[in-house]
Amino acid sequence: MALRDILVHVDASDAGQRRLRLAADLAHRHAARLTALFVREYSIEQQHRLRAAELGLASGQRTDALTRDIVGELDGNADLLRALLSRLQQNLAIDVAWRSVDGMASKVVPQQSRYADLTVIGHNPFDNAALPDDYSFAETMLFTTGRPLVIVPAQELAAAVPDTLGRSIAIAWNGSRASARALSDALPLVQLAASTTVFVAEPSRLAHPDRVDPASILDHVGRHTAHVEYRPLQASNGALGDLLQDAALEVGADLLVCGAHGRPRLWEKMLGRVTHDLLTRIRMPLLVSC
Questions:
Q1: Which terminus of the chain is more solvent-facing, meaning fewer CB atoms within 10 Å of its CB: N or C?
Q2: How far apart are CA 182 and CA 149, in angstroms?
Q3: Phi, psi of 289 (to 5 degrees)
């Protein structure tokens, strides 16, 4: 299936603007429509300001003025992002749409994502401490969306990867249902990528080594692209998430494809070890399916 409809969740931060540029690069190469989704939700900092005013027994007039200020900040953020989207549309000659929705991002973005082929979101594991729940936005998306996700790290966490998305792809393969699902979702990107590298960990690192057949997976991916190679991963004492990202970055990949190993009914606590490693140590964009 061709990639024709991409959704990107945006905000006015540097990371949010970078996500928009990366998604535009992807939309340009796939001749896909790009929809920028801006959720008009008070940030944690804005919520704290309002709460501080209320606890300080500020007058209703003062609270109303503060609310207007925050709404004005949201309007300014929306204007900044729409202007960037317009410039990307002109520079790349892509079909774009702007969508602004009131509500909670954790509710709005999964719902909107079900009407897109692929959704691009951001993730900073160090932000989780400020969240009201014990799970991140990316984890919420992972098990509630039902669509493939591209998760982009915050700029301060990103390694030296180019400002492109899906031009050079790394695939983490272990023969499981989750990795097969992720690969299937990534095939439209693989078909147009300049290079694709399939990484398979040594059998000693796998729960089901009998399912891993490098020749078979290379043959399958080779039906979709002529630019594919296989590389084994050597076992180490470090986290497998780091091992995968190190190997992907070494070959110049700008996207790592991996399956999310978890149990949807208990997803708050049951994320698989590798998925957890990747999300907590994220240094490059990940295409993840569950």
A1: N
A2: 10
A3: -130, 155
Burial class (CB in 10 A: 0-12, 13-18, 19+), 55: exposed
Residue 15 near residue 154, CB atoms below 8 Å: yes
Q: Which residue has the higher pLDDT, 282 or 26?
A: 26
Cα–Cα distance for residue pair 12/77, rounded to 1 Å: 5
> Average pLDDT over the chain, rounded to whole?
84
Beta bridge partners of 231: 199
Can you give the C-alpha Rg of the chain in angstroms? 20
Cβ distance 192 to 219 under 8 Å? Answer: no
Contact 255, 284 (CB under 8 A): yes
What are the phi and psi torsion angles at 63 (to 5°)? -65, -40
Domains of the chain and any CATH numbers: 5-44+73-153 (3.40.50.620), 168-289 (3.40.50.620)
> Is 153 strand, coil or helix?
strand
Distance CA 14, CA 176 (A): 36
Instruction: With CA atoms as reference, report the closest residue to 14 among 118, 110, 158.
Output: 158
For 123, other C-beta atoms within 10 Å of its C-beta total 24
Residue 186 half-sphere exposure, CB side, CA atoms within 13 Å? 35
